Every structure is written in C-alpha cells, then in structure tokens.
Amino acid sequence: MIGKIMGYARVSSTEQNLDRQIEEFKKHVPEENIVTDKASGKNLDRSGYKALKGALGLRGGDTLVIMSLDRLSRNKADIKQELEYFKENNIRLMILDLPTSMIQVPDNQKWIVEMINNILIEVLSSMSEQERNTIRKRQKEGISVAKAKGKHLGRPCISYPDNWQQYYSQWKSNQITAKKMMEALNLKSTSFYKLAKQYQLNDKSS
Question: Which of the 8 DSSP states describes residue 1?
Fold first, then answer.
C-alpha cells in the first residue's frame, strides 16, 4: 500500500501570507493534505505541526513535503531531531528547495533516500556544533575585552547612599531600626543587608 503525501507550510506571523507555499505544494500534494501554521519557528510547539505528527497525521510509508528545512524549525537541534524522527518512522521528507530530496526512486533503491537523509542529519549536526563553538568563543572574547576595559561583569554593584554612614551609626547604636533605615535610604532588605555586611567587613579590615 502506497502511503499518503502531506505538505506542511509555515510562516512566522499572522500578517504573513502562505499562498506562495501552498501554490507550490499543489503541484505535489492534494490540497486537503496541506497543513499550515502561522507561528514562530523558534520551537516545535505549533498546533498544525503537532496535528501533522498526531493520531490522524503521518504514518510509516508516508511522505512529507516542505518548502525548506527552516519551515520545520529555526532551531538546528530541533531540525536534526525531526529528521531522525522521520527516518526512524519510515517517513520520507521531500524539500522543494533541495532538489536531491525530490528524487523518485524504485523500492529496491530506497537506500538513496536514506543516504540523503543521513547526509542532511550529519551536515546539520556539524553546523549546530560549529555554531555552539562560535558562540562560546565570542562570549569568551567579549568577557576578556570587557575585563581589559575594567568593566564589571555580572550583576551591577550596589553603591552606598550619600548619607549611609550617618544612618548606619544610628542603626548600630539602636537609635533607629533597620526598617526605618531602609525606608530613609530607599533600600530593599536584600540590598540593605548586603551593604551592611560589606561595610562591616571593610570597617574591620581598615
């Protein structure tokens, strides 16, 4: 039994138009089998795509047609995951922007399709790894440059209010409560106790 052919079209927002993708799909897919989404490709959490893989969607022996790999997702790790899912479930992926994936082969030459899928997975894996390494390298370079310029990294430092010492002395001598001091200096409790601890340590070391 020959499996069904389905199409998946996606644009990133409701303002964008799906017509171009749908018109291209009609050359390969019955119109009633075209599933669409108007949603971001940052992850796979999309109603149309979930339905495509749900109870009434793709099965072993079926074919899925998409315009390009980024219609599945913008995330390379997600794309790799989906390619592996299709392979494991015997679902053929045909990509209109990738003519080699559109080759029709007889049953005794299905290894050609599998080879193409394996190459895609390998290429995407390499690209993802390279991208991760590049990001890490740029982060390290950015930190080094920032440190060389004397910039503080991490959470911003809390500075002492102008009249800190006056209120601090009153607080330490029990003339005012910590709450009153916080209100007077407009400090949150976490900032107040952090400054108090820091001030006390500096006072002991001086």
Answer: -
Which residues, at least 6 apart from 149, have a Cβ–Cβ distance to it below 8 Å? Answer: none
The one catalytic residue among 12, 40, 125, 128: 12
Q: Is 12 a catalytic residue?
A: yes
- At residue 46, what are phi and psi to the nearest 5 degrees? -135, 135
Domain residues of the chain, as ranges?
5-128, 164-205
pLDDT per 10-residue tile (average), the chain, 206 residues:
86 89 92 93 91 90 90 83 88 83 70 72 64 73 70 64 86 89 87 84 64
Q: What SS3 class is residue 178?
A: helix
Does the predicted model carry a pTM greater than 0.85?
no
What one-character-per-residue DSSP string does 111-159 give? HHHHHHHHHHHHHHHHHHHHHHHHHHHHHHHHHHHHHHTT---SSPPPP
Q: What CA–CA distance (Å, rounded) separates 165 from 136?
A: 43
Q: What are phi and psi of 27, to 5 degrees?
A: -75, -15
Question: In terms of CATH, what superfamily is 5-128?
Answer: Resolvase, N-terminal catalytic domain (3.40.50.1390)
Classify residue 187 by burial, with Cβ atoms within 10 Å: 0-12, 13-18, 19+: buried
